[in-house]
Amino acid sequence: MDKIQQRNFDLMQRGGAALMGLLDAVQAAKAAGATDEQLREALELQRKAQWRLDFIAAENSMGFHAPQEAARVLGEAIDYARQGQIAAMSWSAPRSVDVATN
After folding, report:
1. How far apart are the first and last CA of the chain?
2. How far apart are CA 78 and CA 64, in angstroms?
3. How many of the other CB atoms lie within 10 Å of CB of 8?
4. Mind listing the pLDDT tens digit for each residue in 6-53?
5. How far apart are CA 82 and CA 99, in angstroms?
6. Distance of alpha carbon 69 from alpha carbon 51, whole angstroms
7. Is-contact 70 59, C-beta < 8 A?
């Protein structure tokens, strides 16, 4: 039981860190001038990641009742958050390259 719950807790922490990476990337892109429309993909992925993290946190068994399903959902949360982070970071990446080559 303790091992299942510890694994679930660890995945939740990794999911939270991935989500914070995404939010930091969105904030940086907005500070660089990106609009919500330009960040639409990143923001949609943020909602998907957040929903999954919230679902597992609200379920409140720390993965004990369905450990494989909890791990799957948390894995999706991490994946969506990292995809969103890449989408937000890629908004400003081409501009950096363009400036460097001109």
Report:
1. 59
2. 20
3. 20
4. 999 999 999 999 999 999 999 999 999 999 999 999 999 999 999 999
5. 26
6. 15
7. yes
The alpha carbon of 49 is separated from its chain's Cα centroid by a whole number of angstroms, namely 5
Q: What is the pTM of this model?
A: 0.86
DSSP characters for 44-61? HHHHHHHHHHHHHHHH-S
Three-state SS at 62: coil
**Structure token digits, residue 14:** 């990794």
Alpha helices in the chain (DSSP H): 2-31, 40-59, 67-101
Q: Are 56 and 78 in contact (CB under 8 A)?
A: no
